[in-house]
Amino acid sequence: MQIVVPDQSIGQLSDAWRHCVGTGRLDLALRRDYQESLALVQREIGFRYIRGHGLLSDGMGVHRPYEYAGERRVRHAFTYVDQVVDAYLELGIAPFLELGFMPSGLASGDDTVFWWKGNITPPRDEKEWADLVRAVLRHLIERYGLDQVRKWPIEVWNEPNLQPFWSADQDAYHRLYEVTSLAVKEVDAELQVGGPSLAPGYQDEWIQRFAAFVESRDLPIDFVSRHAYSSGPEQQVPFGTHQTLMPASALLEQFHAPRRQLAGTKLADLPVHITEFNSSYRPDNPIHDTAFHAAYLAPVLAGGGDVADSFSYWTFSDVFEEVGIPTAPFHGGFGLLTHRQIKKPTYHLYAFMADMGDQVLARGEDHLVTRHGDGRVTVLAWAPADPTGREPVDGHTVRLSLPIGAPGAHGSAFARRRSVSEDAGNSWAAWCEMGRPLAPSNRQLDALREAAEPGRSHRSVPVAGGRADVDLVLGRNEVTLLELTPVVDETPEWWDGGRLFGLGAEASDGTEASGNPV
């Protein structure tokens, strides 16, 4: 059935999908490969904020206790913080500050998470923790300006509802939030602070108890945050993990959950930031590298802004070491890019979204249609992605009648199409065909980057009565971006395609064609 797309906009396209993106721990930003990867992402996609763990962990070297004159003192050092934030701002992205994990010199215990051992215990001295928070924020304001830092969200901790990330109980987190939020606002009342950064799977009671605590203590809170993942139990293999997946709609349900859970509380109308989301929560699940993954997440990017103020893809790059140093270029990492900037299919989903217009004309379960201010119409369409592992659908067709140019106009439109699928823009498939080399040669890397580029095509589409009819036939797990631009024909009146090879036509002055220049 053909879908007739209306000429009038039905609303603005939310850019909640590009508000923030995730990263591995912050000190990884000191690496060349990391910065080259982020530069590419910013050039072709352009996120606003970046969020990662470890701002206060030992790897950033901020909290530096020492003994002098018989007493314990603390120096707050910003050598790495400045380099990291400078690099971000130079690339047009600002930090979404996550306050964690605990510096070992302030920790109340030895419990850690990840290969790089982020400490997950409460502070043994709340005053010293508050001093640390204030010192970091005051330094950032001094270096980057108050107006700038007021725009940077500040999140208290990461996933305190999971024992691997918070060794104490919920009440202890409430206390941490109280001490931290008050310290933030002591620096400046307009700084944005929020939480509780919950992992999926929590009961409604967790966030409702948090809301009740914040209300009862009249604590500052400017936004609510949680995470969203759609994967099931882990099936471990050497250097990897496999998991079942829920339908992609489960992610949208998780995005919406805080508004439902907080209805009737004083937190009900606050912005909701999904500060991490992906399919699997494992950084070694090969589903992240596949064409399926792009088609699976397409409806989430297209519709997520309707239920959350932002949703941050976890993560932009495979420069990431939570379970150790990756052993292969494709290892199931979270990133849109592998090491050495090989684009995965999901990278192109984001790049396609970056090329959409801001006026929404239509949306459906397999498409999103927008218009740019200059009249271009863009269509994002995707094949159905079945998470049960059955054979992907081949030949799924999206039939559209699109408004092009002025009402009633006749002529043509230039149609430009880019696609990723099982057969195009699929660097992971190319790597598998190579025999999954653990350390590809330079020649192999060139081939992988070439295979990572989307399929491209172009053609002329007739326009009649201000409309162009297009049938988008999608391959297996395909995501495609179609851009149609009204053609202003500037072909000279003397052009004749039949004369391309200089045969069978008379010269323009009426004399015989002699083979000589006219």
Rg estimate, integer Å: 27 Å
Q: Outline the low-pLDDT stretches.
A: 510-518
Give helix % range. 25-40%
Strands in their spatial order, largest beta sheet? 2-18-19-20-25-22-23
The overall strand count is: 25
Summing up helix and strand content along with how strands pair, one would put the structural category as: alpha/beta
- Overall outline: globular
Strand content: 15-25%
Estimate the mean pLDDT confidence: 95
Major β-sheet, in short?
Answer: 7 strands, antiparallel
Distance between the termini: 53 Å
With helices defined by DSSP (H or I, 4 residues minimum), what is the helix count? 11
How are the secondary structure elements laid out?
Blueprint: E1 3-4, E2 11-12, E3 20-22, H1 32-44, E4 49-51, E5 63-68, E6 71-76, H2 79-90, E7 94-95, E8 97-99, E9 112-113, E10 118-119, H3 126-144, H4 146-149, E11 154-156, H5 170-187, E12 193-198, H6 204-217, E13 223-229, E14 235-237, E15 240-242, H7 249-261, E16 272-278, H8 291-303, E17 310-313, H9 345-354, E18 359-364, E19 367-371, E20 377-382, E21 396-403, E22 411-420, H10 427-433, H11 442-451, E23 455-463, E24 467-474, E25 479-486
Parallel strand pairs: 1-21, 3-4, 4-7, 8-11, 11-12, 12-13, 13-16, 16-17
Antiparallel strand pairs: 2-18, 5-6, 9-10, 14-15, 18-19, 19-20, 20-25, 21-24, 22-23, 22-25
Helix pairs in contact: 3-5, 8-9, 10-11
How would you explain this protein's 3D organization?
The chain is α/β, with parallel strands linked by helices. Helices cover 26% and strands 24% of the residues. It contains 11 helices and 25 strands. It has a 7-stranded antiparallel sheet with strand order 2-18-19-20-25-22-23, covered by helices on one side. The chain has a 6-stranded parallel sheet with strand order 8-11-12-13-16-17, covered by helices on one side. Strands 1-21-24 form a 3-stranded mixed sheet, with no helix packed on it. It is globular, with a radius of gyration of 27 Å. It starts with a strand and ends in a 32-residue tail after the last strand. Keywords: Glycosidase, Hydrolase. This is Xylan 1,4-beta-xylosidase.
